[in-house]
Amino acid sequence: MSITGQCHCGKVHFQIEGDLPDQLTRCTCSFCSKRGVLLAYFHPDQFHSTVADGSDSIYRWNTEMVAHHFCSTCGCATFSDSPAFELDGSWDKVTRRIGVNARLFDDFDAATAPVTVIDGKNLW
Ligand SMILES: [Zn+2]
Known about the structure:
Blueprint: E1 2-6, E2 12-17, E3 24-27, H1 30-35, E4 39-42, E5 47-51, E6 56-59, E7 67-71, E8 77-83, E9 96-101, E10 115-118, H2 120-123
Parallel strand pairs: 3-10
Antiparallel strand pairs: 1-2, 2-5, 4-9, 6-7, 7-8, 8-9
């Protein structure tokens, strides 16, 4: 199966080779709680994006280890390239993952999907 999605203006498209995860993830950190995304995590090899007119921008904060991508034309959060943190915040220093904003998936209502909450407020 493959999953497709795009930002509001359509300048950032993506395709994911794989199935929807059983759970989406909502993070409680100061950034994610303001931004409101529901994330679906994938291995970097599964994720492919295409960007028109240089509309891919990146925001980093705190440790700057996570690249939070967003569309610089319409402002939608698109995906985050991050260390594959465990639920306790630890990391093997190698493995990365892509957290894609499931609200952008085509033909999918992220608001009705099962959600796991990660305690980012206390982890980072
Ligand atoms: Zn856009």
